Amino acid sequence: MQTILENDVLKVTINRFGAELSSMIKKETGVEYIWDADERFWKRSAPVLFPIVGSLKNKAFLYDGKSYPMGQHGFARDMEFSLVSNNGKEAWFSLSSDDSTYEKYPFAFSLEIGYVLLENTLKVIWKVVNEDDKVMHFSIGGHPAFMCPLNGEGAQTDYYLAFDAKEDLTYSKLSENGLVYKKDNVLATNGGKMKVTEHLFDEDALVIEGNQAHEVCLCNPDGDAYLTVAFDAPLFGLWSPAKKCAPFICIEPWYGRCDDEAFTGTLEQREYGQSLDVGAQFEVSYTIAIN
């Protein structure tokens, strides 16, 4: 089932399955900014990553002496959320732990996802509540895919990425298993803006850590930003399917990360992992602005 938000500028559609943003249309032009989940390239549009981000070493995590298998990016993206409220410009969805989640993840939790329309901007809010009687460990992140080229105009290599950081960025590469294996690669941004090159994503996602940037723009062939993602997250990913020439780029704010190839620790020791005391709430957000 779908939920629609609308104002004078934007029409937004969210799927209740995964509470996933599936469409963001500028009403004046009718242009779509979100990838349509065409399976030829990628069957998703903007999944929410919870309770892990990325891949686990050996496809499992260790907690309290027990191994818990879990696939890439967790299970929330593949579960039905409940619609809590929708007033036409703001909608909230919820997911709670149950017998099926306990088998994979040994914590009682609730996850609420909110979408709020503010003129030309969509605000995405995540609220995680620890409903267990022990400290809860988790990660959460976004994976929105944005059209590039936009409206089929030009080639992706005519477009630019722009950052609110003026220095070159460093990033980590991922192995074939989706694990960090090579750090401190340099992404030359020439003062904050770089051309999207043909082979940029040949080795999977670029993982940019350490609060190096908090705003990423997609820019048209003239160099003008048509979409801006802003976030407080300490790291983010940039991704498009390797060597597929897919017409989208993902800009992914993360509060968590895939394991390093050398990682041998427990769930509590995962890099960038979050923890919540009993009864505590974790709340963060990011925004997508259409220019």
Note down, in words, how this protein is organized.
There is one protein chain. The protein is mainly beta and 291 residues long. The chain contains one helix and 25 strands. It has one helix at 99-102; strands at residues 2-6, 10-15, 20-26, 31-32, 48-49, 60-63, 66-69, 82-86, 90-96, 109-118, 121-130, 136-138, 140-142, 145-147, 160-163, 169-174, 180-187, 193-195, 206-208, 215-219, 225-231, 235-239, 248-255, 274-276, 281-290. The longest helix is centred in the middle third of the chain and has 4 residues, at 99-102. The mean pLDDT is 96.
Notable traits:
291 residues; mainly beta; nine-stranded antiparallel β-sheet; six-stranded antiparallel β-sheet; 1 helix; 25 strands; 46% strand; globular
Q: How many beta-strand segments?
A: 25
Quote the beta fraction: over 45%
Helix and strand element order: EEEEEEEEEHEEEEEEEEEEEEEEEE
**Treating each run of at least 4 consecutive H or I residues as one helix, how many helices?**
1
Give the termini separation. Answer: 29 Å
Q: What is the rounded Rg?
A: 18 Å
- Stretches where pLDDT falls below 50 for ≥5 residues? none
**Shape, per Cα inertia axes:** globular
The biggest sheet amounts to: 9 strands, antiparallel
Structural class: mainly beta
* Fraction of residues in helix: under 10%
Spatial strand arrangement across the major sheet: 8-9-10-11-25-21-20-15-18
| Mean pLDDT score | 96
